[in-house]
Structure formats: structure tokens, C-alpha cells
Amino acid sequence: MNKEPKGLEGLFPYLEAELHLEPSSTVITQFKGGYSNLTYLITSPEGEFVLRRPPLGLKISKAHDMVREFMVLEALERAGYTKIPKPILVCEDESLIGVPFFIMEKVNGLILRNKIPEGMDLDSDFFVKLSMYSLDGLLALHQLELSSSGLLALGKPEGYVERQVIGWSDRYFNAKTDEIPEMEKVSDWLKENMPAKENVGFIHNDYKYDNLVLAGPDNPEIKAVLDWEMATVGDPLMDLGTSLAYWAEEGDPDILKMFNLTYPKGNMKRAEVIEYYAQNSRLDLSDMLFYYVFGVFKVGVIAQQIYKRYSLGFAQDPRFAALIHVVKACGTTAMKSILTHKI
Predict the structure, then answer these.
(1) Can you give the residue ranges of every domain in the chain?
(2) Which of 31, 118, 252, 268 could form a disulfide with 39, with the two C-beta atoms 3.0–4.6 Å apart?
(3) Which residues pair with 104 in a beta bridge?
(4) Contact criterion met (CB below 8 Å) for 329 and 337
């Protein structure tokens, strides 16, 4: 984390009024590592809290709607889903820091990025268990009751797949900076190969290891799932496809290993992920190639959007310069799957 008080001065009176945090003893620091919405740790003698706000610069999509993300957490809480940070406050008053934001509880635990933390020994047994726990968590989410919990009101499941395919294709062309023919071919293929049947469930849309808070290096049980900005009601297999797109294996291009620590020994392979999900779900996974290709395409579009923000000067993080290579790798990977019918 690095201290990032600039632009957040207006928070201190608000925190004092709403949470009784003394300004002189309250410290706000930014978490490093994210590619999208910004996350800050609020530390005071009264406790620790986490603040979420949209990224700097261009407003890309509804994914940066802080009020909606807060509502998602509240609805999940009502549905009895316990693996979330407790939502505490939401603020729509942009006069404080220039954008809406919300505050939630801080859940302590281990978050795995794209490398095993220095000095930490995570063996294959750890990753065997983590693979299983993560898929169990995804299945539990997909099987939540929708109506009485109010979750159904957070999305429009009818026509979800078509809207996603068209929407992410449009986002790619709107954010396009380089000629990447493979991405355009994948966009066409997705539009021509949408499955006839749609499934309905609550979905996270960005479910991967670095959005999971684990109990610790000796216990990979999931304490909380983070980053609900893209959660909605839609087809669970679209969610699984996105998770598979992030599920890098040892033989995958190195640049596609930068998002998920699924390649060390012990982790399930993508084929095993699909088999495990199929054994524990009533859904028909015969069209899984489509959902995987969509997931890879979506990851490429997300990288393209962030790269465009970087190229326009709205984001200075030097990591973002490499994201155009992620877009190219996603295009190549998706086309290879289409041609070989392999995931």
C-alpha cells in the first residue's frame, strides 16, 4: 500500500460524522495491485474499514457504479450469502471526493495475486484444496435463491447472453487502439454461435483467486469474495467461462498468467474445472467452448479498455503499458480454441 491522501481530504469530516473516526488519528492508504476501481484502507483506533471508488479518468461502464455495488452486497446479505465484506455506508455526494463511493468492513486474510508471496511456502495440497473451495464457492453463488432475496431485481436474465456478446464487442471497438484481427474475428464468431438455451442464476462476473480472501497459508478456505462491481443475474455458464479465461495453466503464455495463480502444481486444469462444475450442477455444459471463448474475449476487452485509459493519460500505472500484449494474447488464445475445439 502507498499513502494516497491527495483528493481525499473531504473524507475526514464525513468519516468523523458518520463513523465517529477522529481525523487526527485516521490514516487512509491505497491498496496496490488493482486494474479497475480503486480501493483504500481506512485505519483508526476505532477499527479498519475499506473504501471503494471508481477509477480516475474515463467512465467506462456501469461496472464502476459504487451505489449499485453497495446494493449488491446488501442483497447478498439478505440472501444469506455470508462470504462478503459487510456493507457499511454508501455516499452519492460527489462534493466530498469528486465521485460516489462506499465503505465496507475490512476482512483480514490472505489474498493471492499472480505470484506466491515472498517467504510463503504454498504446496500442491494447498492448491488442490483452493481449486475445490473456489469452485464450491462459485457453485454456491450460482445456486442462490433469487426471488425472495431481492437478487432477481439486480439483473435482467432474459437475453443476457446476446446483450453481453454485443455489449463487449461494442466496448472493444470503442476502446480499440491497435489492429488485432483475431479479436475482431472472435467477436464475429461469438455473434454467430450463441447457444439457444439460457440459464439463470446470480453471477459474480470476475471470480478468480485474487478476488478471494482466504483464511491463511495453512488453510485456503474462503472467508470473503471481493469486487462485486460486475455482479448481476444472468447465465452462470458465462460466469464460469470468465473464470476459465483467467484460469491459466503451466503451458499457457506467460502474459496470461499475470491475473491468476492457477498454474502452480496442485491446481485443477481447465478440463478438470469443467468436469467438477458439471458433477455438482444441473446445467448442461455441452456448449462450454462458447462460454470459454467469450470469457477470453471479455478479458481481452477489459485489458483493451484499461490500455486505452493509459494511452490517453488517464492512468499512469506502468503495468498498464503491457496490457496491449494481453489483448493480443487473448485474441490468439480464443481463435486457437475456436479452431481446435479445445479449452
Answers:
(1) 2-105, 124-340
(2) 31
(3) 50, 87
(4) no
pLDDT at 58 over 60: no
Long-range (24+ apart) CB contacts under 8 A made by 118-123 are 120/217, 121/217, 122/217, 122/264, 123/266
CATH topology of domain 2-105: Phosphorylase Kinase; domain 1 (3.30.200)
DSSP-assigned letters across all residues of 119-156? T----HHHHHHHHHHHHHHHHHHHT---TTTTGGGG--
Q: How many CB atoms are located within 10 Å of the residue 281 CB?
A: 19
Compute how many other C-beta atoms are within 10 angstroms of the C-beta atom of residue 3.
Answer: 9
Kindly indicate the confidence band of residue 36, based on its pLDDT and cuts at 50, 70 and 90. Answer: low
The Cα–Cα gap between 101 and 222 comes to 25
Q: How many helices (H) and strands (E) does the chain have?
A: 9, 10
In this structure, the strands spanning 219-225 and 212-216 are antiparallel
CA distance 172 to 17: 43
Question: The whole model's pTM is what?
Answer: 0.89
- CATH for 124-340 (2.40.50.180, 1.10.8.50, 3.40.50.2300, 3.90.1200.10): 3.90.1200.10
Query: In angstroms, rounded to a whole number, what is the distance separating the alpha carbons of residues 130 and 152?
Result: 29
Question: Closest by alpha carbon to 330, among 301, 288, 300?
Answer: 300
Which tens digit of pLDDT belongs to each residue from 262-316? 999 999 999 999 999 999 999 999 999 999 999 999 999 999 999 998 999 887 7
Bridge-based pairing of strands 27-30 and 38-44 is: antiparallel
pLDDT digits (tens, 9 = 90+) for 1-14: 434 445 788 899 99
Say which amino acid occupies 121: D
Nearest to 134 by CA among 266, 295, 299: 266
CB 63 within 8 Å of CB 229: yes
